[in-house]
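To: structure desk
From: M.T.
Subject: fold request, one chain
Message: Could you run this one when you get a chance? Sequence is below, nothing fancy, just the single chain.
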Amino acid sequence: MNQKLVQSLVQIILSLSDEDRQYLEREIQKYSLAKQLENLEDKLKIFEAKYQMLSQEFYRQFQAGKLADSSDFFEWNTYYEMLNLSQVKISDKS
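Reply: Done. Structure tokens follow.
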């Protein structure tokens, strides 16, 4: 890690007004949530390709008890629910 760069960034952040710091924090949170969404979508695509089914359809069937209780399906279900929660958080922040 470049310590001089980090120190410079700290000085810049400390020189910001409260309003600007709050704006910066919101932007960092948005970026972080967007990266989380991207990672979750990548994980879902792996399951979709493996089982030749869209996540939305998988979720509907899994919740209805129409699919087996495999560890893959529990993991897929969890990622799908995490994606939905993250999307709600992003829409609430917009």
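Reply (cont.): The radius of gyration is 19 Å. Let me know if you need anything else for the meeting.
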